[in-house]
Amino acid sequence: MSTDSPRLSAPVAGLIGVIALVAALGAGHLVAGFVGASASPFFAVGNAAIDLTPGWLKDFAVRTFGTADKAVLLTGMAVVALALAVAAGLASRRRAAPGLVFVSVVGVLGGVAVFTRPDLGQIALLAPVVSLVAGLAVFAWLHRTALDGQYSSAARRSFLIAVAGAGAAGVAGELIGTSKDAEGSRAAVGPLIPARTAPPVPAGADFAKFGTPSFLTPNADFYRIDTALVVPQVRTEDWSLRIHGMVDREITWSWSDIRNRPLVERIVTLCCVSNPVGGPYISTARFIGVDLAELLAEAGVAPGAEQVFSTSADGWTAGTPVSAMADPSVGAMLAIGMNGEPLPIEHGFPARLVVPGLYGYVSATKWVTDLEVTTWDARTPYWLQRGWAEQAPVKTQSRIDAPRGPVAAGQVRVAGIAWAQHTGIDRVEVSVDDGPWVTAELSTEVTVDAWRMWWADVPAARGSHAVRVRATDRGGYIQTDRLADVVPDGATGWHTITFTAR
């Protein structure tokens, strides 16, 4: 090619790549507003990245970023995508071909990500197709216009039109998507009045004045760990629950079917398997719903069934032992309410599973729509595919919540929580600087399926000190000091903190 052929300046070329990328993503997001939010190519690729993330990396993200892990993922994706778009633009200073190849590759990746989503139908492919066409058209148009006169008023006008159009498409897609959200449906549910209420929470159920959490966790503070990059928006009028598989009769319940059944209220502590020793991913709420044991009994569980394979509205799956769901004494629920109101959208509205005594990855499917009674060999749920354990009972554990900073020397008050679901906490002990164990005062027990608070006064001279805690459950099991990672079935070890006495 002649060296005197038209050539774009580096800033203009890079800008073309960025605008074409934004136009492609904006167009895809607009179409996704009609066919499903997770069909947006950007979100679909993000969901694919989450699904392909190995367990160790997922745990690192949760430990490092907590509930901001998804925001970090999206930000990282955006930075990488913009950098690649700039690079594609710079490679296209004379010819549009490199940039068009880049847009095509991005479009194909988005299409593959959408096609492999279990919660999307074939019509969802419209989003990545439109995204691809828009990206190619905008890149070719801007490249040709800029070559004809990159500093002309016509070129500048084309750039502004492309930017405005891409932005408008993205905003319109977001508005259309949110206009179909579940908040209005949730607001219309009205009060949920249980036929069987949970026991009242006595005044001595927590030691919040000493630094423990409140006994019941406000909905806004309840921990949230899941794989949903885009929170599913499911309306009650669109929701149903199907029980099928190894049952005597397949049954599908509508929202009104469940809403009009006698409701039960239970206080349950939920704990994430990714919670490290002393970690924050544990909370307690009053859940309102119906007994899963009753639903399964109506369907009739066939002999040989081993797991209930649950599926979320966004395609996520979990496997719960049939024994935990079908036994009325366990208290497994299809929950539709939380702390006196309908489930918050981010916590599973319209309905979720709550199975006391099991870590959430096998028991707490949010936005649940399908329950298949089957065997472990027949179906492999999401986290079991990634090396986590099949059975996941919550382990006897304890945590120190106070003190959190320097304290006055002398008697120091240490406080925290402990839990041993189905069994109950019998004793909590603390030790300072490897000294003798001191038995703590326990809060009033509300239910064995909820955490229990504790406090103890210990002597501490001036200087730095280390305090550790261990719990003993009512079955006589003393919490192990053996340190174990969260993989494959939950962390173990004594929580230890340091504090300074002055």
Would you mind describing this structure in some detail?
There is one protein chain. The protein has helices at residues 10-35, 41-52, 55-65, 69-90, 97-115, 126-149, 153-179, 183-187, 255-259, 292-299, 322-326, and strands at residues 240-245, 251-254, 264-271, 282-291, 307-312, 317-321, 333-338, 341-342, 352-354, 368-374, 397-402, 410-419, 425-432, 438-439, 441-442, 452-460, 463-473, 496-501. The chain is of the alpha+beta class. It has 3 domains: 10-179, no CATH class; 203-386, Oxidoreductase, molybdopterin-binding domain (Sulfite Oxidase, Chain A, domain 2); 397-501, Immunoglobulin-like (Sandwich), CATH 2.60.40. Strands 2-1-10-5-6 form a 5-stranded mixed beta sheet. A hairpin with a 5-residue loop joins strand 13 and strand 14 (438-439). Helix 4 runs antiparallel to helix 5, helix 5 runs antiparallel to helix 6 and helix 6 (126-149) packs antiparallel against helix 7 (153-179). The protein is globular and about 85 Å long. The termini are far apart. The model has no long low-confidence stretch (mean pLDDT 91).
Write the layout of secondary structure elements.
Elements: H1 10-35, H2 41-52, H3 55-65, H4 69-90, H5 97-115, H6 126-149, H7 153-179, H8 183-187, E1 240-245, E2 251-254, H9 255-259, E3 264-271, E4 282-291, H10 292-299, E5 307-312, E6 317-321, H11 322-326, E7 333-338, E8 341-342, E9 352-354, E10 368-374, E11 397-402, E12 410-419, E13 425-432, E14 438-439, E15 441-442, E16 452-460, E17 463-473, E18 496-501
Helix pairs in contact: 1-4, 1-6, 1-7, 2-5, 4-5, 5-6, 6-7
